[in-house]
Structures are given as C-alpha cells and as structure tokens.
Design a protein that fits this description.
This protein has 286 residues and is α+β, with helices and mostly antiparallel strands. It is globular and about 50 Å long.
C-alpha cells in the first residue's frame, strides 16, 4: 500500500489539468516527495512542548473526528516542489512576488487542498479511515501563542517527523528538493512503515545553522521580518497577507499572493546546500 499511496499522490499532481499555469507555460509543481510518520512517534508529543499544548497530536485529531483513536496509525506527508519556471520568475523579484508565484500560492494551494480531499476519499474507498488535519473542523490558527502565530496542526512539523526535511533560519522546511514548495498531510488508521529520518537536528539542512556561512534569506526579505536571530512572524504575516495582496491581488487576479522571496535566489531554493565544495550532504530517500 505504501507504493500505491506514493503513486496515487504523484498521479494526482503530475496528471492534473489544474497543475498548469494559465498560459500553459508549465506546471505549478514538480513530482511530489512523500514520507510517513507513525502516530506514536515521540516527536508529536514534543511538538506540544515546542509549539504549544494547543498543537494536536494525530491520535487526538483522529479521536475528535471518529470518536476513538486507533491503536496505531500513519501520518502521510507530501512536499510539492515548486516548478523551476515559477521559481525563476520569483528570483528576479526584490520587492513583490511574481505573478507566477502568486498564482502558485493561490491556484496551486487549491490543488493541494484537492489532493488532501482526494486522498481521504481514496483511502476510504479501500476501507481505511482518514482525515486531513487542515480541513478538520477543529483546525484553527492562533495569533497570540507563545511562539507567535501558529496553528493546531503544522504541516511542516509533520513533514519533519516524516523524514522530509529540516527547518531553516526563515522557518521554512529545507527538503532534498529545497525550500520552495507547498506541503500537506493526511492521517489514516492504515499502518505503514515510517520513513527514516536522515538527520538528527531540527536545522541540519540550513547553512546558517550548520556553520554560520549563510543568511541569504535575510537579505531577500522585503518586509524586514528576517534577521540572524530568526523570523518575526508578525511582520511577515502583515506583509504576506496585508501589504502584498492589497498591492497585487487585483492585478494578479488572486486573493492570496504569498511572497516567497526568501525561498528563491537562495542556496537552499531547490536542494540541500553544501557547506563547502566537495562536501557530501545525505538528503535521504523519502
């Protein structure tokens, strides 16, 4: 079933007519990366300490939806790497996201939502209970949590648990296909082998956290929301969900524009960066 799930997620994204820019110049997303984590992974309990007690572990989400948690289950996670032409268009920007990037944030994320819904139905048709945390009735975002803006389920933290990548100075997730991506997850009572994590630290793939040799994302931020001390979520949010759509939403014909400047024209845009010439970085094989 593991390979069937990988193949179905790939098929849904690669073959979808919705995975195309309006001018047919290319896709929003390349082939997905897929990883699996067990409900029982201790990381999900730790997330309640790291993010906050409001962050719901898989079993609790399952119980809230179905009335009882299974003895075991799997978190299915995916990364949708943003296609090169979209990334290339955003590399040229210094103040606002490109039209292609904004369309990927809006229409590409609609496709990501459709994938969540599709996979839940696909699993149900095979006799498995499943739910998408971000679409569950209890999902909510908190603006005043101890770690700033956060939600009751973090797609990036789930992907970290599923062996798909580690965090960066800008709080993004650096995968073997880089930091420019969208991500998603579905919970199921189907038990699958967890994907091994090829890293031990939360920021192993980030050059700045690894050896201090990079902070390219800081220079790319048009909102002054990044520094070597980290990510100011409030400034970032005000720019991404306030100033940018106000400036470009009507021009681009979308309500959500994203930004992504700190995810493009940086060493980790499309790969795990190396600290120095010749250094080997093991990206794992999720």
């Amino acid at each position: 079933m593991e390979q069937e799930i990988r193949a179905e997620i790939r098929r849904f994204i690669v073959d979808s007519p919705a995975n195309r820019l309006p001018d047919e110049s290319g896709p929003y997303f390349d082939e997905p990366l897929v990883g699996f984590a067990a409900f029982s992974d201790p990381l999900f309990s730790r997330f309640q300490e790291i993010i906050g007690p409001f962050h719901q572990p898989p079993g609790a989400l399952f119980e809230a939806t179905f009335g009882a948690a299974p003895a075991a289950g799997t978190v299915i996670c995916w990364i949708l790497p943003i296609a090169e032409e979209v990334r290339k268009s955003n590399r040229r920007q210094s103040q606002w996201p490109s039209r292609e990037w904004a369309l990927t944030r809006s229409h590409g994320e609609a496709l990501n939502r459709a994938l969540r819904e599709h996979l839940v139905g696909w699993l149900a048709a095979r006799g498995q209970r499943a739910l998408a945390p971000q679409l569950a009735p209890g999902w909510r975002e908190l603006a005043d949590s101890p770690v700033g803006i956060a939600s009751t389920w973090s797609e990036r933290h789930a992907a970290y648990a599923a062996g798909l990548g580690t965090f960066s100075l800008n709080d993004g997730l650096i995968t073997r296909r880089g930091i420019a991506h969208r991500c998603g997850s579905v919970l199921t009572d189907l038990v699958l082998p967890p994907t091994p994590r090829s890293y031990s630290g939360r920021a192993d793939h980030c050059l700045y956290h690894r050896d201090g040799s990079c902070a390219a994302c800081v220079a790319r931020c048009p909102a002054d929301a990044l520094s070597r001390e980290g990510h100011d979520k409030a400034k970032c949010r005000a720019y991404v969900y306030g100033a940018t759509p106000q400036m470009l939403g009507a021009v681009y014909g979308v309500t959500a524009t994203g930004c992504g400047l700190c995810q493009t024209k940086v060493p980790c845009e499309e790969r795990i960066p190396r600290s120095r010439p010749g250094e080997t970085v093991d990206p794992g094989k999720p």
